[in-house]
Each structure stands twice: as structure tokens, then as C-alpha cells.
Specification:
alpha/beta, eight-stranded mixed beta sheet, four-stranded parallel beta sheet
Length: about 350
């Protein structure tokens, strides 16, 4: 009887452990991780040709650590990422996490706009559960393709209890980066993703997850932003400054209905003199203008060489221009009050 009891106990324990595996949804959007080329030594390839089922099948070990489910949200190169896909992706993540169907989410994504999607989700996902973006710099058929190990690491980050409450993160090349801080810094290198102002927040080495820092800006469950009832996002354009610049692009943006402009200025966010005046006129006309910098790191400070109060400009804190655009779009879904929008830049 004692042996029978032990056998039954082991069966129950085994069944309990099997049920206890976390459920991770892999939501695929395309990109190089889902790309394929004509040969292992050919650098040319087409993004978004491999389906989510094939991505999962290429890394069978993830099924040992989690119950994996896959969905194809889109299948595009991330240079073609758009607001419609962002809204679809964010709404699906919120549905899965808040319904209890998923313990964590992994989003496979192209690297060109991964940082923007990550920050968008960081601001609109309403859950503390892990959300991890992952991609690849080498397509699936390339020699030393980095996608499979990146995906394995991403799933391990998604099931880690230490990932809870960290906000959206990006996992690439054995590193974990906070969505707000990370940016792509190299066109082809596998170590392209860096966080210039803060550094990575953790590492993941063959599935071994370690965190060293916590993001402290508002994100996910603590974020001020909510997509409930939001069907479209307002137009916000980025104007990139250069020597001997002209105001034409500012004027075109205003004419074509931009509700906000992010000025990627020179140095500490300084526009060329004629661009400065055009931005000032845009601000007077009700367009929200945020000064940023093309430099790539550091804070764009208020009232340096530019009298922001005079022109009615806001500043981006230390967000890069592409992320400032994301935050300004979401801010404009809530308010046109400049003081409130500036507060968002200082807290998110």
C-alpha cells in the first residue's frame, strides 16, 4: 500500500508541475528574426517571411520551460511599422495579460523600430507581467544567426519572477534593456542595442537571468496612458536639424495637419535660426513643439540658448527624438495642456 501511495503521489506531483509551467504568448510582427535569404553567406534577405510557428519550432527548448503559444500580429519589416499595428499589438497584449491567459509576452520584432514599439508598449500596457521584445541582426538562414538564442533568452526573461514590474524590456545579445532607455546604435552589429544614458538593466546568458537595476520612470501599470477608446493616434512629425537648414519641413508638417513636432536640434536642441522662427509660429498656431537633440544621448535642457517660455516650447528630458514622438502622440490623446505634457516628459 505504501508503494502504491508513493506512486500516486508522484503522479499527482508530476501533473501539478506540468500544470505549473508558465504560459508565454509569442506575438510575431516580422523583422529580420523572421527573415530569410538566399544563402548563409549572403547579406541580402527579405524580412517577415518566416511564420511564428516556424520561429517557435526552431527553438524547441523553450517548450521545456513554458507552455508556448504563438500568434501572428503582422509580418513586416519593422521599417514599415505603423500606428495600426501598434494599437493591435498593445490591445492584444492587454487582453492576454489581464484575462489571465498569459503569464508573460514575448514580441518578435524587427530591429529598425524595436525601440519605438518597446517604449509605446511600455506606456500603454496595463499590467506588471513581463513583456519582452526580441529580434535578430542576422536572418534565420544566415551563418551564426542570432535569432534562436535571442528568442530562447527572451522566453527565459519572460518567465523570470524578477521581470515582474520591470516594465517592457528588450532582450538582445545576452543583455536586458529598459524600453525607455534602449536604442539601436549600429547598422549591422549584433551588439547594436545600447542604453546610452543609463546602461543595461540586466543580462541573460543561455537563459540565466540576472537584473542589476530597476527602471524608475512611470511605466505599464503606473503609466498615465490608457488605450481604452483610442482608435487612432495624432500625427506627430520629427524635424531633423543640420547646418544651413531651412524652415520648409516645419511649414509642410503644419500645413499637412501635424498636431505635434519634435525638433531634433543641434547640440542641446538648438534649431537653425529660420527653423526656430518657424517652430515658434507653429507653436503659436497650436502645434505642440518639443525640443530634442540629434546628438543621441544626454538631456535637452530647458532655457539654454533657446528661450522656451518665449516660444512656447517643451523639452524632451533625455528621450531621443523617436521616443519623444511616441510620448507626445500619447500625451496628445489625453490633453493639449503644455504644462501637463511637460510633466509627462519628466515622469515617464
Amino acid at each position: 500500500m505504501r508503494l502504491i501511495f508513493k506512486a500516486v503521489l508522484l503522479m499527482i506531483l508530476g501533473a501539478t508541475l506540468a500544470v505549473a509551467k508558465p504560459t508565454i504568448y509569442i506575438l510575431a510582427t516580422g523583422g529580420t528574426i523572421a527573415g530569410s535569404g538566399s544563402g548563409s553567406l549572403d547579406s541580402s534577405y527579405t524580412s517577415g517571411t518566416v511564420t511564428v510557428d516556424k520561429l517557435i519550432a526552431a527553438v524547441p527548448d523553450i517548450n521545456k520551460i513554458a507552455t508556448i503559444k504563438g500568434e501572428q500580429i503582422s509580418n513586416i519589416g519593422s521599417q514599415d511599422m505603423n500606428n495600426e499595428v501598434w494599437l493591435k499589438l498593445a490591445n492584444r497584449i492587454n487582453e492576454l495579460l489581464n484575462s489571465g491567459k498569459a503569464d508573460g509576452i514575448v514580441v518578435t520584432h524587427g530591429t529598425d523600430t524595436m525601440e519605438e514599439t518597446a517604449y509605446f508598449l511600455n506606456l500603454v500596457v496595463k499590467s506588471d507581467k513581463p513583456v519582452v521584445l526580441v529580434g535578430a541582426m542576422r536572418n534565420s538562414g544566415s551563418l551564426s544567426a542570432d535569432g534562436p538564442l535571442n528568442l530562447f533568452n527572451a522566453v527565459n526573461v519572460a518567465i523570470s519572477k524578477d521581470s515582474v514590474g520591470k516594465g517592457v524590456v528588450v532582450v538582445m545579445n545576452d543583455e536586458i534593456h529598459a524600453a525607455r532607455e534602449v536604442t539601436k546604435t549600429n547598422t549591422t552589429g549584433v551588439d547594436t542595442f545600447k542604453s546610452p544614458n543609463s546602461g543595461k538593466i540586466g543580462t541573460v546568458f543561455y537563459g540565466n537571468v540576472k537584473y542589476y537595476m530597476n527602471p524608475i520612470r512611470k511605466h505599464t501599470a503606473s503609466s498615465a496612458f490608457d488605450l481604452t477608446g483610442v482608435k487612432e493616434l495624432p500625427r506627430v512629425d520629427i524635424i531633423y536639424s543640420h547646418a544651413n537648414d531651412n524652415p520648409d519641413f516645419v511649414n509642410v508638417a503644419v500645413k499637412n495637419g501635424a498636431k505635434g513636432i519634435v525638433s531634433a536640434g543641434l547640440g542641446n536642441g538648438n534649431p537653425y535660426f529660420s527653423v526656430l522662427e518657424a517652430l515658434g509660429e507653429a507653436s503659436k498656431a497650436g502645434v505642440v513643439v518639443v525640443r530634442d537633440s540629434r546628438v543621441g544621448s544626454g538631456e535637452t535642457t530647458m532655457n539654454g540658448e533657446i528661450d522656451d517660455a518665449k516660444y512656447g516650447f517643451l523639452t524632451c528630458d533625455n528621450l531621443n527624438a523617436q521616443k519623444a514622438r511616441v510620448l507626445l502622440m500619447l500625451a496628445l490623446t489625453k490633453t493639449s495642456d503644455k504644462a501637463k505634457i511637460q510633466e509627462f516628459f519628466l515622469t515617464h
